[in-house]
Amino acid sequence: MNADSVQARTWRLLELLADGEFHSGEALAQQFGLSRASVFNALESVAEYGIELQRIRGRGYRLARPWQRLERDEILRLLGKEATRFDIEVLAQATSSNALLLQRAAANAASGSVLAVELQTAGRGRLGRAWHSGLGNALTFSLLWRFECGLNALSGLSLAVGVAIVRALNEFGAQGVKLKWPNDVLTDQGKLAGVLIEAQGDMLGPSAVVIGIGLNCTLSVQLERQIDQPASALDEVCGNMPSRNQLLAALLRELAAVLQQFAQDGFAALRDEWERYHVHQQKTIQLRMPDGQIVSGIACGVSDSGELCVETAQGLRQFNSGEVGGLR
């Protein structure tokens, strides 16, 4: 049997085990017309997905933590009248939702196309970094949005997306969510979410952007070991923890509103709101430039086009690239 067939069998079994209840090997084998050995083999490698599977003689198999599956029809229902804006597809497994959606964008996929991935095996972050996630403990998706304007008019878009994310999380009572320039979402514990924007088109227009978002819902010990920076999860700061379907619907709704406003008025219309969430606002920072140079100063917010404004010893300067670190 080829690897694709084994993988498909594993996903069918995981979908049945998503309820967190015990299922005997015999019952699973009968339901799918398999041998018990085939069930065992299909579930043998699920630890690679960040899944803790309990096996107890006489009771069968159970996921240590129930898996909330993403369900297209439920997401559309939750979107209500906004559902017509989106064409949503949920994939069980993929390397990178951004990479796939960029290919579809080049083949004229419609604005509002969404790819959500249950298990992303080669997720990408800014500056080529890896984004680590396991099955069911994160929300990883990409949204294609088309603009009449050209690429040169998209300055500040990643910051606008950050505003949409905070708005959506506020709906569920998330506490202490902040934004770090240019595209990180933080809590006091560490990084909660990241944004990767990739664009296609001409400088004068039209243009298309694929907005990739990865957001930690929960953090397992295994996953924390893989992440090379302080990280946080939504369940640590959210008193009214949403399902992943509710979360994706809220994010898409807020993204549509923000992207429509951005298309009309640019980032300037969202600048004040972004600065209210800016974790380094009026604080001393160090900005590491792409060439390794370090710039120190006070973060004074951002410009109408999204550049970071820093009061330095040489005066007020604006930057459109660099890595920000706070000083204690």
From TrEMBL:
BPL/LPL catalytic domain mapped to chain residues:
70-263
Which species?
Answer: Ferrigenium kumadai
Q: Which residues bind DNA?
A: 25-44
What's its job?
Acts both as a biotin--[acetyl-CoA-carboxylase] ligase and a repressor.
Report the CDD domains cross-referenced here: BPL
What reaction gets catalysed by this protein?
biotin + L-lysyl-[protein] + ATP = N(6)-biotinyl-L-lysyl-[protein] + AMP + diphosphate + H(+)
Which residues does the record give as biotin binding sites?
S96, S97, N98, Q120, R124, G125, R126, K191
Q: What is its EC number?
A: 6.3.4.15
What is the superkingdom listed in this entry's lineage?
Bacteria
| Gene Ontology biological-process annotations | regulation of DNA-templated transcription
Please give the InterPro entries that the UniProt record associates with this protein. Answer: aa-tRNA-synth_II/BPL/LPL, Bifunct_BirA, Biotin_CoA_COase_ligase, BPL_C, BPL_LPL_catalytic, HTH_11, Transcriptional_repressor_C, WH-like_DNA-bd_sf
Its name, as the record gives it, is: Bifunctional ligase/repressor BirA
- EC primary class: ligase
**What Gene Ontology cellular component terms go with this record?**
cytoplasm
The alphabetical list of record keywords is: ATP-binding, Biotin, DNA-binding, Ligase, Nucleotide-binding, Repressor, Transcription, Transcription regulation
Q: Which family does it belong to?
A: Belongs to the biotin--protein ligase family.
Which molecular function term from Gene Ontology is one that the record holds?
Answer: DNA binding
